[in-house]
Specification:
By secondary structure, the chain is an alpha/beta fold. It has a single domain, classed as Rossmann fold (3-Layer(aba) Sandwich). It contains 8 helices and 10 strands. α2 links the parallel β2 and β3. It binds 6-phosphogluconic acid.
Length: 230
């Protein structure tokens, strides 16, 4: 298990540092292979980061952006992570990036697992940068401990990179990247703010199983850079 802790005095300082690190890694990837991949999460925490990235001068046309997870709603729905990304990240300078959506027209996300898996695998076998959030129940991406699908989502031998999940403690069916796809990324950041989330993470790592607190599974399978501010 490997967690590298980076603490900042304020969310603003965290955002600036994280944006800088992301751009450096994407730049190195473009130098090495001519393109780069960036996976972001939804929720409220990353919004200021998205705004800052969107204002950053960069070869965004060489970057493909996708999500670690999506709520199974229309892309215009207020809870859509795609909408959050389109409205805040894929703006200004970053509007030149390519975005890969995790949604289809299927009623049930389960039906779309093969198609979404193929889409995300086509971006990269190992994403250059992947940024996770975490909920107070220890979920990350949409790998919810309360969902029936949690064992399948955490199964490292799972072939499909995407999994449909149905949380019982949060709204909407979801489409999530599997644990195996997440931990294959070359760089994984965990972006958290607030004392509560820090305590949840420490408690998860010390006192729970992977199935009980899926964020622990991520930390057990790869090096995670925790970016935290009060
Ligand atoms: C989602 C997520 C989810 C999120 C956490 C934290 O779509 O809900 O990607 O994993 O990162 O729930 O969300 P907050 O930043 O809103 O606390």
């Amino acid at each position: 298990m490997s967690l590298i802790i980076h603490e900042f005095d304020s969310p603003d300082l965290l955002t600036q540092n994280l944006a800088k690190q992301i751009m450096t890694i994407l730049q190195q990837a473009i130098k090495a292979k001519g393109k780069a991949s960036l996976v972001v999460s939804g929720g409220s925490t990353p919004k200021p980061l998205f705004t800052l990235l969107s204002q950053t001068d960069f070869a965004w046309e060489k970057v493909t952006v996708t999500l670690a997870d999506e709520r199974w709603v229309n892309a215009t729905h207020k809870d859509s992570n795609e909408k959050l990304v389109r409205d805040n990240l894929l703006q200004g300078k970053a509007s030149a990036a390519t975005f890969v959506s995790l949604t289809t027209e299927d009623q049930d996300a389960t039906t779309a697992e093969p198609e979404i898996s193929a889409r995300i695998d086509a971006i990269d076998s190992q994403f250059d940068v992947l940024i996770l959030g975490m909920g107070e129940d220890g979920h990350t991406a949409s790998l919810f401990p309360c969902s029936e699908q949690i064992s399948a989502g955490l199964d490292m031998s799972r072939k499909l990179s995407a999994i449909a999940t149905q949380p019982t403690t949060a709204p909407h069916q979801r489409m999530s990247m599997s644990l195996a796809k997440i931990v294959a990324a070359k760089k994984v950041f965990l972006h958290l703010t607030g004392a509560k989330k820090k305590a949840v993470l420490q408690d998860a790592l010390a006192n729970y199983t992977d199935l009980e607190k899926p964020i622990k599974a991520v930390c057990e399978h790869t090096t995670v850079d925790l970016m935290w501010a009060p």
